[in-house]
Write a structure and sequence with these properties.
Layout lengths: L2 H4 L5 H24 L1 H21 L3 H12 L7 H13 L10 H9 L3 H15 L24 H13 L1 H7 L4 H13 L1 H8 L6 H24 L5 H17 L9 H23 L5 H16 L7 H16 L8 H28 L1 H20 L8 H24 L18 H10 L3 H16 L6 H14 L6 H14 L14 H21 L4
Helix pairs in contact: 2-3, 2-4, 3-4, 4-6, 5-6, 6-9, 7-8, 7-10, 8-9, 8-12, 10-12, 11-12, 12-13, 12-14, 13-14, 13-15, 14-15, 14-16, 15-16, 15-17, 16-17, 16-18, 17-18, 17-19, 18-20, 19-20, 19-21, 19-22, 21-23, 22-23, 22-24, 23-24
């Protein structure tokens, strides 16, 4: 029986497996080959001579992948013809192609030291696809005309860039290039934000192009982060990010309003959220300085002052978390102490504003407010976790938990004030029995014992400060304690607060002289019963 009868090049699965084995074998002997230059040159020349023919014969993707990987193991000088073939392959693909279709080609070019060709290809596609009038943020009259969209593939270029930035090997290869070879790509990405403003201003821009522009805006930010990390001695790329933040404030925030169309509102929200997310990542990887951080806090304040700024609260909280982490995790220099204290005050004021905005949203549109509570829950939890790692910055802890304490007490007391029949006065059994804002806040707080203790400590301070001045508010406090007592972890704190509340509400004893159908009297009696239940539980042994 002839070999051709058993094994055929038409048998794709078998051929692909053999090629994969060949790559494994090559890698296993590569180190030994490198030690013997004569053997290395002979072997590489043999493989280099047949690889072009193999690529012609084996057109299936599963066969191409190991062949390209094998080519990447050869010196670039031994396969000059393959370099153009690999680049031609990258040019021929379509946007949305599976990563496996181009990953090996990208890595192959990187191993040959040809990453500059990929960068140039991405830049060319971005530049070719940009509108002829790309500078015109100010001039928005008439239609936007595009040049060369059929020939260029900006989306595919962004997919290549995403792959390069995501993988350490290719990313390191990219940043070995001189800065002058990367700046044109940085500039090309930056230009695409003009399309976002054109669309917001009413120009005719297709949905696909808008999506590309938004992705380019995000990639511009990501590239800035990497470049600032690579060149920390200058603020060139931090300034570029600050310029983008200022651009969003000036050009995009005005469209985050009820007077905007649904499309304008959606795009402005996506753009603002993308900007906030990129800035959060800047702080997370510690490439931002104090000036950049303060610039971001001003930006967040501007977002929250916008009519529809509440829609961006989840990414705002995520950004505030990184600001807080940066402020609280390092001991400042002596000459920076005052500035850091100011930053922390601004941070806590902004957090208080966030809580107020959520509460206002719930009053104005309950359904939308509930959605906002749900979408903000994880971000709020992450923000509160920062408090676990600080002991010295008591003003931060006090500022954050006084806002939460006040918000929950006011929220529950407002609900109690709306009661019109004594039968509606009930003892809550779980957080789900509380109004939406209190439900969200307590649900988040109770996930962490340390955070819960901070909250209880602030509640104790509020009680002692005589800030609570009505039976409705005392009832609200007792509702909170009743929920928290379901955990056995806070007996000491609960007992102390419950005793203090019981002393305080003695001032309202005369309410019991009212008729039995008096709501204030019913609230008082309900509060006393809940306090007794809490104290009885605290007195039980083995708790």
């Amino acid at each position: 029986m002839m070999l051709e009868d058993v094994l055929s090049v038409q048998d794709t699965a078998s051929m692909a497996s053999l090629l994969e084995i060949l790559v494994i074998l090559w890698k296993s002997v590569q180190k030994s080959l490198m030690a013997n230059q004569e053997a290395f040159k002979y072997t590489t020349s043999k493989f280099a001579s047949v690889l072009p023919q193999y690529l012609k014969i084996f057109q299936e993707e599963r066969c191409k992948a190991p062949l390209i990987l094998l080519a990447s193991l050869l010196p670039a000088s031994s396969v000059p013809a393959l370099r153009s073939k690999v680049m031609s392959h990258l040019r021929s693909l379509k946007a949305g192609t599976a990563v496996t279709a181009y990953s090996q080609s990208v890595e192959c070019l990187c191993s040959w030291g040809q990453i500059s060709h990929i960068v140039e290809l991405i830049e060319n596609w971005l530049v070719e696809a940009i509108p002829v009038r790309a500078q015109g943020d100010e001039d928005t009259s008439g239609k936007v005309h595009f040049d060369g969209l059929e020939e260029s593939k900006p989306d595919l270029g962004l997919e290549y860039l995403d792959y390069v930035l995501l993988h350490p090997k290719t990313r390191d290869c990219l940043f070995t290039l001189p800065l002058d070879q990367i700046r044109p790509l940085h500039k090309a990405l930056d230009k695409w934000k003009s399309l976002l403003f054109s669309s917001l201003s009413g120009a005719e821009v297709s949905v696909a192009v808008i999506e590309t522009a938004l992705r380019a805006f995000i990639f511009h930010g990501r590239l800035c982060i990497h470049l600032q990390h690579k060149y920390p001695e200058e603020r060139e790329f931090l300034k570029s990010l600050e310029h983008s933040v200022s651009w969003v404030e000036e050009r995009v925030l005005p469209f985050l309003a009820s007077s905007s169309s649904e499309q304008q509102l959606s795009l402005s929200r996506k753009t603002v959220e993308s900007c906030l997310t990129v800035c959060k990542d800047v702080l997370r990887v510690s490439v931002g300085d104090g000036d950049f951080r303060d610039h971001l806090l001003q930006h967040v304040a501007s977002v929250l002052q916008t009519e529809k700024g509440y829609m961006c609260i989840p990414p705002v909280l995520a950004l505030l978390t990184e600001v807080a982490q940066g402020c609280l995790s390092h001991k400042p220099e002596e000459d920076q102490e005052d500035q850091l204290s100011l930053t922390i005050r601004i941070l806590t004021n902004i957090f208080q504003k966030v809580v107020e905005i959520i509460a206002h949203r719930l009053r104005k549109d309950k359904e939308e407010g509930q959605e906002l509570c749900c979408s903000s829950e994880e971000a709020l939890y992450d923000f509160l976790l920062v408090t676990k790692f600080t002991t010295e910055r008591s003003e931060f802890i006090t500022g954050v938990f006084s806002s939460l304490c006040a918000a929950v007490i006011i929220d529950i007391s407002r609900t109690l004030q709306k009661i019109s029949h004594v039968e509606e006065v009930l003892t809550p059994e779980s957080v789900n029995d509380l109004p939406p804002l209190s439900n969200t806040i307590l649900k988040v707080i109770l996930r962490s014992p340390a955070v819960t203790r901070f909250f209880l400590s602030e509640m104790s301070s509020s009680i002692e400060s005589e800030a609570i001045d009505s039976i409705t508010q005392w009832a609200a406090v007792t509702h909170i304690l009743t929920i928290i007592k379901q955990s056995d972890a806070f007996i000491v704190e609960l007992k102390e607060i419950a005793l203090s509340v019981r002393r305080q509400i003695q001032n309202y004893y005369n309410i019991t002289a009212e008729n039995s159908d008096n709501i204030q009297r019913t609230l008082y009696e309900s509060t006393v019963r809940m306090l007794n239940d809490i104290l009885n539980q605290c007195q039980q042994p083995n708790i």
